[in-house]
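Next comes this protein:
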Amino acid sequence: MPELPEVETIARGVDRRVSGDRIAEVWFGSHREPFKTPAARQAKGLEGRIVLSVHRTGKHLVCELGPATSAGKRGSKPEAQWIVHLGMTGRLLVTTPDAPVALHTHARLTLASGREIRFVDPRRFGRLEFRDLERMASFSGAGAEPLTIGAEAFAALFRGRRLSIKAALLNQTLLTGVGNIYADESLFRAGIRPRRMAGRLTRVELERLRVALREVLEHAIQLGGSSVSDYVDADGVRGFFQLEHCVYLRTGKPCRHCEAPIRRILIAGRGTHFCPQCQH
């Protein structure tokens, strides 16, 4: 599943290409699974709207939409939102109308510029939602934003938690956007074993983890995310951060720091990778 760096990379790419453009026509496929809001209601709400901006909230892509009269000016007050969750295999692509239409394409938004936004999802775990902000609240993530959370707030998230720090990092009501890849990589960088109880970590260890998490996420964004499965950015290009993974999917390979074999265990049903010498 795409995590924070992948979703951030896609959001920035889509924003650069379609901000200020108008949605001229909408087509949705016949499968019901991707639609959190009924397809007909989404189409009616989207057509004619100006895309003011596209940003990430947690693991969701949020398109801020205004009326056609807003002329696509940044800073205009949004009147609606189109919210995309990529699920396990979803892709949000910006392309031209003559580009081949991939199998499992569930949405095509034709823009006034002639470009198209396409949502492709083979496994249909992704979700598409439309919100009229005159009737509904703006979309917000359930947990804290790991790129901006401060030291006190970060430590407070884990105080008294009787679960492993790996499971706590994956809890989207605590931190939004962190998944298996970046939990493993951040714990390695912070030198903390994934089975340690979250509530028993010291303030020094938690601060080390907070800084490591931010550094790993920011570096992954710079490299376009990790392409370990189906992920590609808005242009269909794979990311490069997987080439720098220190532990994730490196079971049995030598640690890049100490050369001890990387181990894999299960925590909360998730494959978890760590170095038995570098992490304590």
Remarks:
- The first helix runs from residue 4 to 18.
- Helices lie at 4-18, 39-46, 151-158, 165-170, 180-190, 203-222.
- The chain has two domains: 4-132, 151-274.
